[in-house]
Amino acid sequence: MSKGTIVITGASAGLGAEMARQFAALGYDLGLCARREEKLEALREEITAAHPERRVELRSLDVTDHEAVHTVVRDLAAAFGTLDRVVVNAGLGKGVALGKGRPDANRETAMTNFVGALSQAEAALEVFRAQEHGHLVMVSSMSALRGMRKAMTVYAATKAGVASLAEGLRSERVPGLDVSVIYPGYIRSEMNEHVAQNTPFMVDTETGTRAMVRAIEKRKAKAYVPAWPWVPIGFLLKRAPLSVVRRMT
Ligand SMILES: NC(=O)c1ccc[n+]([C@@H]2O[C@H](COP(=O)([O-])OP(=O)(O)OC[C@H]3O[C@@H](n4cnc5c(N)ncnc54)[C@H](OP(=O)(O)O)[C@@H]3O)[C@@H](O)[C@H]2O)c1
Questions:
Q1: Based on the structure, what is the number of domains in the chain?
Q2: Strand order of the sheet with strand 28-34?
């Protein structure tokens, strides 16, 4: 018996791959998307070995290809008959301080994290409106709470954009639609494998993802994860003057 169907983008690595493992363990069937097909294949083998009753569909997808996003989401909805949840998770953090000669890196971050997320939300909403139910999950970041310096400037702006998109949808009160925004703190993944082992507050992938999955299962409108220390840090970040924020990040 399936608990429902979940599409996860950026499922080939890090938080997306771990969400896939944990949602499969909870009894969900999965549509997993990313560009690296061999990683998705390996993940499917691992999941179906642990949970043979689970159905796992794979789709090669670049989220910056707007048409492909729509095609893949429609195709997965048709394959499963219904999509209960779409987790907009694919993302990258390639930013460089503005005006330092890497507009390409900043644009790629913006196109993937914001425009790509918009395409995914648009495609998901088409399905959710038609079936009159669905849960849209946007993976934002604690960095979305304030403007961030240098390499983080564009990344933080994209994550604020994603959170705003989600709030707009929540405000619309689309019949049958739940919207969650997840704000992860530091969770070990491919994205930050170059970051020092002893980075303060960094948690391992399984622990961090477990906090995400718990919040998603509760359909929280927003969640800073893991709650400790990110709930109090979020409280301070939102209220502190920029001179303090600058030193916190
Ligand atoms: N880890 C953290 O501490 C942290 C904190 C805050 C927010 N987040 C957010 O959490 C999400 C997952 O990040 P992560 O830490 O798990 O990073 P990761 O380990 O680098 O994984 C990123 C995933 O996104 C996919 N992806 C990147 N560009 C893509 C594209 N153009 N089309 C399709 N898929 C693409 C990658 O797959 P392919 O390369 O195979 O396409 C990969 O599966 C991101 O949105 C990130 O911003 C992470």
A1: 1
A2: 56-60, 28-34, 4-9, 85-88, 134-139, 177-184, 222-225
Categorize the per-residue pLDDT at 214 as very low, low, confident or very high, splitting at 50, 70 and 90: very high
Mean pLDDT of the chain: 97
For residue 88, the ligand 1 atom closest to its alpha carbon is 45
pLDDT at position 51 over 90: yes
Where in the sequence is the domain holding 190, given as residue range(s)?
Answer: 4-248
Atom of ligand 1 nearest to the CA of 16: 16
Answer whether residue 194 shows pLDDT above 90: no
Decide if 178 contacts 136 (C-beta within 8 A). Answer: yes
CATH number at residue 23: 3.40.50.720
Q: Residue of the nearest CA to atom 17 in ligand 1?
A: 191
The CA–CA distances, whole Å, from 25 to 28, 46, 177 equal 7, 12, 24
Q: With pLDDT > 90 as the criterion, what percentage of the chain qualifies?
A: 95
Distance 13 CA to ligand 1 centre (A): 7
Could you tell me the two tokens for 180?
């969650």
